[in-house]
């Protein structure tokens, strides 16, 4: 009986050491090297997650494009039934002009899809724009909108989900 306990204990110790030490150095990074960087996808659904966004510089909700490489901000003017999307840089504040004729806004409720045309801001030249604008009567309803903003930059498709939140009451 005593031999069984020692044998069982020895096996348990060897098993524990195997799990602690691992099965080789293949998965350990070499000393003084950075861990591997995860591949970033242009889709928000596949992109690494980072902190939630507050309101953008124009007061609208912000969504990721490309895991934080770009951001897009959604704003709406219910009176004019007009949506504006701003393309922002990784800092979520600075305009990031892109070469694109349009971006697409898809709203969940009411279900609608709008092609937003490039409307360059002052100083944006060379066929680039960071502002995209479109109209639709469905935007005249005063509500919090949610949906997806998609576009293409240099052949890479980008998409990001946004959701307006009700204004905070003091």
Number of helices: 1
Instruction: Assign a percent range to the helix content.
Output: 10-25%
Biggest sheet strand order reads: 1-2-3-6-5-4-7-8
Number of strands: 8
Structural features, described:
This protein is mainly β and 170 residues long. The chain has a domain at 62-163: Immunoglobulin-like (Sandwich), CATH 2.60.40. The chain contains 1 helix and 8 strands. The protein has one helix at residues 2-21, and strands at 62-65, 70-77, 82-88, 102-107, 112-118, 131-135, 146-153, 156-163. The protein has an 8-stranded antiparallel sheet, with no helix packed on it. The model is unreliable at 1-51 (pLDDT under 50).
Give keywords.
single chain; about 170 residues; mainly beta; Immunoglobulin-like; eight-stranded antiparallel β-sheet; 8 strands; disordered N terminus
Detail the topology: elements first, then pairings.
Elements: H1 2-21, E1 62-65, E2 70-77, E3 82-88, E4 102-107, E5 112-118, E6 131-135, E7 146-153, E8 156-163
């Amino acid at each position: 009986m005593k031999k069984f306990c020692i044998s069982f204990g020895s096996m348990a110790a060897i098993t524990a050491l195997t799990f602690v030490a691992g099965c080789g150095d293949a998965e350990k990074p070499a000393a003084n090297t950075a861990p591997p960087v995860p591949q970033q996808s242009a889709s928000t659904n596949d992109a690494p997650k980072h902190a939630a966004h507050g309101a953008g510089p124009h007061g609208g909700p912000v969504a990721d494009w490309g895991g934080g490489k770009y951001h897009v901000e959604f704003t709406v003017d219910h009176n004019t039934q007009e949506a504006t999307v701003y393309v922002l840089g990784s800092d979520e504040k600075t305009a990031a002009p892109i070469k694109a004729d349009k971006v697409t806004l898809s709203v969940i409720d009411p279900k609608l899809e709008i092609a937003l045309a490039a409307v360059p801001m002052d100083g944006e030249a060379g066929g680039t724009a960071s502002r995209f604008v479109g109209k639709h009567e469905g935007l005249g309803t005063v509500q919090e909108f949610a949906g997806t903003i998609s576009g293409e930059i240099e052949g890479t498709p980008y998409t990001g989900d946004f959701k307006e939140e009700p204004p905070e009451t003091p």
